[in-house]
Design a protein that fits this description.
UDP-n-acetylglucosamine1-carboxyvinyl-transferase, Chain, 12 helices
Length: 433
């Protein structure tokens, strides 16, 4: 699907979609629990559906309940039924890195033979050092890059050590799995810890399910033989990562956008979008459950992206409107996402006329001028497609995004909400030679 956008400012109110990151974690914990759980979650993306499908293959029963007039929508989760270690389970991860990296240690802890089916760039994305630690502690794994990626054996408790600068998802995956083992374990983190808010999200979720883990001086102390116990009901927060695109668009415009359903007490690291936009010069208003952003005189700033890599594509667009130089650094991990996001967002914005260059670990942007518009690829990446759409606000001529359906990975209703805020989009028919 190609989408054509006529440039215009966005304004109005929009409701944040459920947090993809929190939904993954809630579904996993509920599937490991002692009884049924209802997870209130209005809508789901391709990534969330991938996690639900894999958990069902592992033995859970998950029913996606639609919203009714007097009751919320969400997931009814009945926990895993024990599967034989001889049964080979097929786990369709699609292109969800969270699904694969969270469930790989879990399948190993359960002693289940599993074939993980991976799509897109997922087979190419880093799996070390998690791979080595699972192998060292009793698991038989396919070669790196295999597709399907196969597991066998059973994870043994003990000492685990991970470089914390590669992916927080490796750490979260082990935090889900290690409490299930028959004895105690330690998980030691080495190097600089990046995306720590995502680890805090995992800790907060497993605590809701009565799992106790001590953390001190970069070491997790994890008791074995713990039982996940359902709280019965829980609600998924609004997603700061995807709301960031609307808040970024508001900073570029002449009016305001209010994003509702966001918690300022959330452990999602991407809520820092409001502080960063404020440093750029945007006007920010906050309530207990909403954020309103409006444009101001934007100026270039320096951004450390070590804890907020998912915000970089949207922030790069804002940087194009900010007078002077913006430097985004500590974002090298973006090269291993659904696309090489540093190259992808640079390519898109340069095609629109931006003055932007890629560094080893980030971007340098000289902003303050209007963009031209044009035809760009989504690079098959949801965050690149959404950033290109937001960039249309700065363009003089229409923008066409090829393969714009990539947004469905995290935000299927993105273009509907874009139009709700006054955007002007149309679906383009691609001519086949």
């Amino acid at each position: 699907m190609d989408v054509k956008i006529q440039p215009c400012f966005l304004k109005g109110n929009v409701k944040a979609i459920p947090s993809k990151s929190q939904a993954h974690r809630a579904l996993i914990c509920a599937s490991l629990s002692d009884r049924q759980t209802f997870i209130e979650c209005e809508g789901a993306s391709e990534d969330i559906e991938a996690t639900a499908a894999c958990l069902c293959a592992l033995g859970a029963d998950i029913i996606h309940k639609a919203q009714a007039e007097q009751s919320p929508g969400g997931f009814i989760v009945n926990p895993l039924k024990q599967k034989s270690g001889e049964t080979c389970v097929i786990l369709p991860c699609a292109e969800s890195g969270s699904t694969f990296r969270f469930l790989l240690p879990l399948a190993c802890a359960l002693g289940i033979k599993a074939h993980f089916l991976l799509e897109g760039r997922l087979p190419e994305r880093p799996i070390s050092p998690l791979y080595e630690e699972l192998s060292r502690n009793g698991c038989n794994l396919s070669q790196k890059g295999s597709n399907p990626f196969c597991t066998g054996g059973k994870l043994k408790p003990g000492l685990f050590a991970l470089d914390a600068g590669v992916s927080s998802q490796f750490i979260s995956g082990l935090l889900f799995a290690l409490p299930l083992l028959e004895a105690d374990s330690e998980l030691r983190l080495k190097g600089n810890i990046e995306s720590f808010p995502y680890i805090e999200m995992t800790m907060a979720m497993i605590e809701k399910f009565n799992i106790k883990i001590d953390y001190k001086e970069n070491i997790f102390y994890i008791k074995g033989n713990q039982k996940y116990m359902s709280p019965g009901n829980l609600s998924v927060e609004g997603d700061w990562s995807n709301a960031a695109f609307w808040l970024a668009a508001a900073s570029l415009g002449e009016d305001f956008i209010t994003c509702e359903g966001l918690s300022l007490q959330s452990k999602q690291g991407d809520k820092s979008i409001i502080d960063i936009l404020g440093k750029f010069g945007a006007k920010i208003e906050k309530t207990a459950s909403s954020v309103t952003v409006s444009g101001g005189k934007l100026r270039g700033i320096e951004i450390d992206a070590s804890d907020i890599p998912d915000l970089v594509p949207a922030l790069a667009v804002v940087s194009c409107a900010a007078e002077g130089k913006t430097v985004i650094q500590n974002a090298e991990r973006l090269r291993g996402k659904e696309s090489d996001r540093l190259e992808a967002i640079s390519s898109v914005l340069r095609a629109f006329g931006a003055d932007i260059r890629v560094t080893q670990d980030g971007l340098v942007i000289y902003g303050g001028k209007a963009l031209s518009g044009g035809v760009v690829s989504s690079w098959g990446d949801h965050r690149i497609a959404m950033s290109a759409a937001v960039a249309s606000v700065l363009c003089k001529k229409p923008v066409v995004i090829k393969d714009a359906q990539a947004v469905s990975k995290s935000y299927p209703g993105f273009f509907s909400d874009f139009n709700l805020l006054g955007g002007k989009t149309s679906q383009e028919t691609r001519l086949v030679p």
